[in-house]
Give the backbone structure.
Amino acid sequence: MKKINRDFKVRDFHQAKWNEPIIFELHNPGHRGIEVPLASEALKKEAGDVYATIPQGMRRQKAPALPCVSQARVLRHFLRITQEVIGADLNVEIGQGTCTMKYSPKINERLARSPKMSELHPLQDERSVQGILEIMYKTDLLLREICGMDRVSFQPQSGSQALMTMASLIRAKVEHDGKGEQKDEIITTLFSHPSAAASAIVKGFKVRTVGPREDGYPDFEQLKALVNERTAGFICANPEDTGLYNGEIKKFTELVHSVGGYCAYDQANANGLFGITRARDAGFDMCFFNLHKSFSTPHGCGGPGTGAVGVSKDFADFLPAPVVDFDGEKYFLNDELPHSIGKVRVYQGTPQVVLKAYAWMRALGAEGLYEVAKIASLNNNYLYKRILELRGTSVPFDSGEQRVEQARYSFQKLFDETGVSTEDVQRRMCDFGLHYWTSHHPYVVPQPFTLEPTEFTSKEDIDEYADAIAQIVEEAYTNPEIVKSAPHNSSAHRNDESPFDDPKQWAISWRSYQKKFED
Amino acid sequence: MDHKFSHHPYIPNSDEAIKREMCDFVGISSVEELHRDVPDELRLHRSLDMPKAIRSEYELYRTVSGMLQKNETCEENINFLGSGCYQHYVPAICDEINSRAEILSAYAGEPYEDHGRFQLLFEYQSLMAELLDMEVVNVPAIDGAQAAATAIRMAERATGRKKAVVCENILPDKLAVIRNYCTPAMEIVVLPFERESGQFDLDSLKKLLGEDVAALYFETPSFLGTVAGNAREAAELCHACGALCIIGTDPAVLGVLEAPVNLGADIVCGDVQPLGMHMNYGGGQGGFIATMDDERLVREYPSRLFGITRTEVEGEYGFGDVYYDRTSFADREHGKEYVGTQAALWGITAGVYLSLMGPQGMQELGETMLYNARYAAKKLSCVGGVSVKYLDQCFVSEFVVDFSKTGKSVGEINDQLLSRQIFGGRDLGGLFPGMEGCALFCVTEVHTKDDIDALAGALCEILGKEGK
């Protein structure tokens, strides 16, 4: 035979498509998935008639209509469906900007799934959990060094919950300062995460938003106009989702401090800054890191993660309790936080996630973290140039500034010239086995897409991603229908979206679907 | 900065030749020219002070697993701690599925390349809906405490009222979460439970309810294990004044106990951890919130809600976000509370768990717990000086043991149990006034008769008393 020609520009991909039924359709009353240990006759005899103890009307009358499915069929069902998800381990995960989709080392997962971690009860005697407490304490020390703060809490399970925690800390502190009535506003920036604004509302603040200047940086003049004696706090990301680092950030924090406000830093975008600059040095009073983003722990389809909140010593006593401490001999849970906001999550957060982040940092050390920041930024600037070479692309606020670890681009020109929208491109990227995200809503950048290559992608990976976008751009100008009608090689085809916003038609469970759409 | 760090397995482009090539393309002479927007005054002009990198995977494994070896687990000991985090058997298939790279490493993809993620969570919602006998279940919240806090805020918005009554006999951590999350928007009033019965009293409840109350939140089983026999009356009192009734529950007991919706609950919430999650030192929690398909309440969920639809291909299921515009993803500060990363992997796992268990499995799980806990309670109450509170009531897996007449504190007893490789119950002294000397014990299907007998035997030794 002739040598096989493997010379193609984009991957010839097809996602698994099993067209698997809903689990309820596999029901067979004669089947079982697993058996449960039953009480022995001897034990039952001594226990007596337990059903007689249940108060009248409190015993389940109708068994739950769960399906009966054999074990192998349950396994096959869920394995097939998992094949219809394209996680970061499978695709070149660049397209989910703001999410820092990096490689989650398998060794860390293996450590976290050890019974020495998974079989711990959160209320065990501290003497029996010295290992995990040591890991949590040492992770706290490492994070303190990275951000310059004085104390870290691992209680929040996500970045959004960390934002809510920071808003809670600010509220508790201004009340402690005796200014709870007066200080009722939080200022954020337009390109910060939606939860920065939304969680401030949850905590009873009014939200004021600073928009970008023409060059994309947050507008200091707008901040000046908004800052006053009512300002309780300022919450922002830096870089924001544009990838632009605001070098004047200290001016912002100083201004907010000048009216007695506090400054909170969303470090979800920290991946390009390890060892370069620290939150504290920019004047922030508190910050958080997403351990499931910058620190490599897997995202799990949306949690559990950890939003580790670091604070200056002025806020240490306000943190959710407990924090992990060390008395020179043993590690312990310290509940003695006199001004604690209470709790944002039960127990001590998500310790198995902390363990994975700890192992990741130990594998890299200080030099490795610095290299992460440099390579994440190099990769991003390399991709940035490749994307902007493509017809139909642009980036808002392009004044030649470097982007740090990500950038938000626009396909407005492509849309104007071909009618192909960023959502069309998104669906078409599935056909090449790649993920592509547009942006949070409401779109500020028209026809947006947000790319973040992180340090784990090789040059070849980045080229593959950019080549796929190039291919779609080419198609948009020559054969736009193929893009608009995508996906073609995915597990599913285009949804009829009409039921999703219609209370008469939406079906949020199988039983609702059955009820609303009888034969 | 003198900086040499290359060829790390997690950083393919840390090779000098590749870096050079990429720098050339970008138009810089070295990576040190990156970050030029970070002004000098903000730069860290030194290396981070951290332990040196552990470069080999083996040495990393040795280091971290060496630290973990200092832990003593609930597999190596007999554990009687519950209190919101429960030791149940985790079927092998639950771990098999939630370790799959496809879903473990996925995040927030779209209905097309992540079709499976939407189906998995839609199935989770649907399976929970059957267990709860309700119609709408959210993509999991952070934990059961957050679920309760959000349910209360949903009631606030649905009724336009700013006060909630919360029964005292709930996990204290949960009350702390509710208080923080509802302050300052709402007033949280605590309805004490009666120490004699472990239950709240309807007359006291009546005094707190009124036209300004958005919701009553209570649990059955309660934190103390007792089943709220007056749940229906409490729900009726709520409805009579236009308040919503929110009931927290443990999903593991719903094969034997009535679903809270049938007691009159408008919103039901709790934690999915018992349904296939390892305890993970508290990291296995994930919250659920459920309602009927009532638009008034559906529009108040802050969470993602995945719905089913048709696609352009006949015979194919499609899935997507229902009523996305309510969320903060869609509308920032105008959305309902906020949404973000929560506990999706645990929702998927709970779906696998319920698919394996089926109706019979859930019924048997509840029954085994009823027997084991009742046996354990009887056995312990035979130890001299020890009594079990609320022994005449129904409890499924948790019960309160009163050591106040033994002459030893719960701390002393638990110390001595620990030396016998038994994790004793949670000390209730300090949590609730009037419960000094009491401890909350938990027995599930993982406990054998021998385990329970070992506990009773150890207590006899520790207390110097023979079993009666």
Notes: Chain A has a mean pLDDT of 96. The first strand of chain A starts at residue 151 and ends at 153. Chain A has 16 helices and eleven strands. Residues 166 and 343 of chain A are 12 Å apart (CA to CA).
